[in-house]
Design a protein that fits this description.
By secondary structure, this protein is of the alpha+beta class. The protein folds into two domains: about 20-160, Aminotransferase class 4, branched-chain amino acid transferase, N-terminal domain (D-amino Acid Aminotransferase, Chain A, domain 1, 2-Layer Sandwich); about 165-290, D-amino Acid Aminotransferase, Chain A, domain 2. It has six helices and 15 strands. The protein has helices spanning about 50-55, 75-90, 95-110, 185-200, 250-260, 275-280, and strands at about 20-25, 30, 35-40, 55-60, 60-65, 70-75, 120-130, 145-155, 165-170, 205-210, 215, 220-225, 235, 265-270, 285-290. Helix 2 crosses helix 3.
Length: about 290
């Protein structure tokens, strides 16, 4: 029996749709055909390699209604690309990117009644985990589960109106927990202690440092629009690396800025130290710092 669909006050991650997508992989058999099944719980062996050694990667993007009421997603091929890159980092098998997009489109079609009115959206969470049961940390998983869930969500900001964020500069700890530039749940568990402390101190978010260099916030990439010490107008974002995850919106903003006919500034992947940023602020050379 299908559930009643809420129409407002979704929050984030509070509701799940009636169905989910699943596919399995075995070292000898390869990938199974993806199927849409009723939403359900999982049962794991205590030796499960995901539970014991964090063999897990994930993605996140949205489906939403456009001005004509049509269901849209935003460049899911880039989310597929990023997920496959994450898989390769932890010895997981890769999925065909086109099949990834097609299978999620089918799930969205089945669950279209859950798509809320704009500016709310339907959050798409693809996850890949190990089903192998072993305490041998030198082994790579031989059985994998890929699944996708959907959840209606409110916009990040109330009434979809961005407001300034109060950022705390944090040099202790690590944004990604030393697991390289991949999308994994461990990225978020790793920062929870620091983020909770920052919010208790009255901050909205953390601006992480990698050594003395600006990295990103706990859930967003960072852009800085400024005039450099040489007098050049630049839109810069830190280089992707161990403390900076690749971002679909980040890549899109750079592409749009570079393709603009009005070349008002250089678009660069460029490291900047916190001291350089503070000095630029004092000299009023910073136009905007943006998180996305």
């Amino acid at each position: 029996m299908l559930k009643e669909v809420p129409t407002q006050n979704f929050g984030f991650g509070n509701y799940y749709t009636d169905h989910m997508l699943e596919a399995t992989w075995n070292e000898k058999k390869g990938w199974s055909k993806a199927k849409i099944v009723p939403f359900h719980d999982f049962t794991f062996h205590p030796f499960n390699m995901t539970l014991n050694y964090s063999f897990q990667v994930c993605e996140g993007f949205k489906a939403y209604k456009d001005s004509k009421g049509r269901m849209c997603t935003f460049r899911p091929n880039l989310n597929a690309k990023r997920l496959m890159a994450s898989c390769e980092e932890i010895c997981f098998p890769v999925l065909d990117r086109l099949e990834f997009v097609k299978s999620i489109d089918k799930l969205l079609t089945v669950e279209k009644r859950w798509l809320p009115e704009y500016p709310a959206s339907l959050f798409i969470r693809p996850v890949m985990i190990s089903l192998s049961n072993s305490l041998n940390s030198n082994e790579s998983p031989k059985d994998i589960l890929f699944y996708v869930t959907l959840s209606p969500m409110d916009p990040y900001f109330p009434n979809n109106q961005p407001v300034p964020q109060k950022l705390k500069i944090e040099s202790a700890g690590s944004r990604t927990g030393g697991i390289n530039h991949i999308m994994s749940g461990a990225n978020y568990a790793n920062v929870s202690k620091y983020l909770l402390r920052a919010k208790k101190e009255g901050f909205d978010q953390i601006l992480w440092l990698s050594g003395e260099k600006i990295a990103e916030t706990s859930d967003s990439n960072v852009f800085i629009h400024w005039t450099s010490v040489k007098g050049q107008k630049e839109l810069i974002t830190p280089k992707t690396g161990q403390m900076c995850l690749p971002g679909v919106v980040k890549e899109t903003i750079q592409e749009l800025a570079r393709s603009s006919k009005k070349k008002q500034f250089e678009v660069l992947n460029k490291d900047i130290t916190i001291d350089e940023f503070i000095q630029a602020q004092k000299e009023r050379r910073v136009f905007l710092i943006m998180i996305n």
